[in-house]
Design goal:
It is a single chain. The protein contains eight helices and 30 strands. The protein starts with 10 loop residues before the first strand and ends in a 12-residue tail after the last helix. It has 597 residues and is α/β, with parallel strands linked by helices. An eight-stranded parallel barrel has the order 23-24-25-26-27-28-29-30, surrounded by five helices. The protein has a six-stranded antiparallel β-sheet with strand order 3-2-4-9-6-7, with no helix packed on it. The chain has a four-stranded antiparallel β-sheet with strand order 1-12-5-8, with no helix packed on it. Helix 6 runs parallel beside helix 7 and helix 7 runs parallel beside helix 8. It folds into three domains: 166 residues, Galactose-binding domain-like (Jelly Rolls), CATH 2.60.120.260; 88 residues, Immunoglobulin-like (Sandwich); 269 residues, Glycosidases (TIM Barrel), CATH 3.20.20.80.
């Protein structure tokens, strides 16, 4: 799926701003057939939950409605006219004037709706978007809705971050020529000093295709033609972590020597490979340092914010981090564009979080019923998961910053049924993109003794909380558990191993001379203990702390004001551990600690 962008043949109008807003319980039965009868307005992009002081809106289960007037540029006659939603969490219905023109399910991937036959160039229309935050066993992530004692519908979900909802990313109106470029796939490599750019183009209509690659200075370095081919780039400059050199592939659809459509694709020439217990970028061992993150800020919720994005990347650089995981859903594509330009490595994760009834059982790990069953994660869930994979890989396949797909976070891979659930999804992911390694993040209940799916994947990604949920306050014992756990995976798999989550909740300003949980000193000491253990294993390829910053969760008794495992506070102020990580990570340059440069 091509991201809308202005070109000589395409135009783009932002629909971001303040829209009329209302919730279904306070609106007429068909609120889209007229102006919304509501005094409220909501910002786009932003989650709606924290915008208002009304708790009924914050906790609403059901549909909410956004509405605004849109004028089509008068010069768009004869063009295809589309709406683009970068995301609508978690389902959307779109109305032009009184008519339903399209629907989408899935809260973190974009969708387009062709409205050419419903609007006119130079004319205006009423755009209404209904958005539902409801989660069920037919959604990714899954959840369930029950009717409480008060008679209200109550949303339950099994992931530990707040279920923010709404139009959290940008909305666009854009034009396309009738004959057009519909998709572009790029795969890169190199032989010696020559870069290889393999491309495949899909076209709507009858047109020839020609392509050219330009360097960062705009000079043409390779040209070709046809729907697919391999372009050779002499004296190639590789895209590297921390040193992002980008080329541009311009694809043109041509009829009788006239360019009828043009689309640019940013290209970073690099390779990714797993070999033995090493993770290789451009044939060189790479060691991940960084974080699991969240799209989460005060008031905006999961609303994309360019100012926060820039500052977060500055903090990544300050800390010495070279990577992050898009936990636990695909982030806004603007974030990946930024990572492409700045050489930050990304593990791109699906929204498949909460596939684990063992979490409901608490530390016992005993599920109330099997996770992989029609009671919870059955055929409908698997189908939604597969569609999410198609949309995620279709969107992000050309980003050089994305080096690995993470299929799920903390699934019940220790339970029967997990292999039957995941094996078709792994096969699908490899079919959609055979070039990138696959992983999933292991829950603590899934051990090297009982996990049933690790052989399907390329990299072992561990989420472990020894010293916090287990052995809290006893780092000496926690170190022994961690050492044995990693050794077990080394002996079983022979694969690269990394830690995708480790950390401790920390209240900024709380201090102690003892190993007291929640203090800044304890967070620092816990991380340092983990690092001692990591450095004993040559098979270890990375460490991503949980979490980059504090974030909002449900109102659990153990979540005072949200999850406090951030190295930075929710407003991005450093805790003591941030300085300890900076001392460890800066200067590593993507190398395993203790190795020579």
């Amino acid at each position: 799926m091509l991201k809308p962008t202005p070109t000589p043949t395409r135009e783009l109008v932002s629909l971001d701003g303040v829209w009329r807003f209302g919730i279904d319980t306070r609106l007429a039965e068909q609120p889209w057939i007229a102006a919304l009868d509501s005094p409220l307005e909501a910002a786009v992009p932003a989650s709606y939950n924290d915008l208002f002081t009304d708790p009924e809106i914050r906790d609403h289960v059901g549909w909410v409605y956004y509405q605004r007037e849109v004028r089509v540029p008068r010069g768009w006659g004869g063009e295809r006219i589309l709406l683009r939603f970068d995301a609508a969490t978690h389902a959307a219905r779109v109305y032009v004037d009184d008519a339903l023109v399209g629907e989408h399910v899935g809260g973190y991937t974009p969708f387009d709706i062709d409205i050419t036959d419903a609007v006119e160039a130079g004319g205006a229309f009423r755009l209404t978007v209904a958005v539902s935050a409801d989660l069920s066993k037919e959604t990714i992530p899954p959840g369930k809705i029950e009717v409480g004692m008060t008679g209200k519908r109550v949303q339950t979900y099994f992931h530990d971050f707040y279920n923010y909802a709404g139009l959290a990313r940008s909305v666009w109106l854009y034009s396309l020529p009738a004959t057009r470029i519909d998709d572009v796939t790029v795969v890169t490599g190199f032989e010696g000093s020559t870069g290889i750019v393999d491309y495949r183009v899909e076209v709507v209509g009858d047109a020839d295709v020609r392509v050219r690659v330009t360097d960062a200075a705009g000079a043409v370095v390779a040209e070709g033609s046809g729907l697919e081919g391999a372009l050779q780039v002499p004296d190639v400059v590789l895209w590297k972590p921390g040193a992002a050199y980008l080329y541009e592939l311009t694809v043109e659809a041509v009829q009788r020597d006239t360019v009828v459509d043009s689309y640019p694709v940013v290209v970073g020439v690099r390779t990714v490979e797993v070999r033995g217990h090493e993770f290789l970028i451009n044939g060189e061992p790479f060691y991940f340092t960084g974080f699991g993150k969240h799209e989460d800020t005060a008031i905006r919720g999961k609303g994309h914010d360019n100012a926060y994005m820039v500052h977060d990347f500055q903090l990544l650089e300050w800390s010495g981090a070279n990577s992050f995981r898009t936990s636990h859903y695909p982030y806004a594509e603007d974030v990946l564009d930024f990572a492409d330009r700045h050489g930050i490595v990304v593990i791109d994760e699906t929204a498949a979080v909460g596939l684990n009834m063992g979490v409901v059982g608490g530390l016992s790990g005993t599920p109330p019923f099997p996770t992989f069953s029609e009671q919870y994660a059955g055929a409908a869930t698997q189908a939604a998961h597969a569609q999410h994979l198609r949309e995620l890989i279709g969107r992000d396949k050309n980003h050089p910053s994305v080096v690995m797909w993470c299929i799920a976070n903390e699934p019940a891979s220790n339970e029967d049924g997990s292999r039957e659930y995941f094996e078709p999804l792994v096969n699908l992911a490899r079919e959609l993109d055979p070039t990138r390694p696959l992983t999933y993040s292991l829950v603590m209940f899934a051990t090297f003794k009982n996990d049933q799916i690790v052989d399907l994947f390329d990299v072992v990604s561990m989420n472990r909380y020894y010293g916090w949920y287990i052995n809290a306050g006893d780092l000496a014992t926690a170190e022994l558990y961690l050492q044995g756990d990693i050794q077990g995976w080394v002996d079983r798999t022979g694969k690269p191993i990394m830690m995708t989550e480790y950390g401790a909740d920390t209240m900024p300003g709380l201090h102690s001379v003892w190993d007291q949980v929640w203090t800044e000193e304890y967070q620092t000491d816990l991380l340092e203990m983990y690092h001692r253990v990591f450095d004993r294993f040559p098979q270890f390829v990375g460490e991503q702390v949980w979490n980059f910053s504090d974030f909002a969760t449900t109102n659990g008794l153990h979540r005072v004001g949200g999850n406090k495992k951030g190295i930075f506070t929710r407003d991005r102020k450093p805790k003591s551990a941030a300085f300890a990580l900076r001392r460890r990570w800066r200067g590593l340059d993507g190398r395993k600690p203790g190795t020579e440069s």
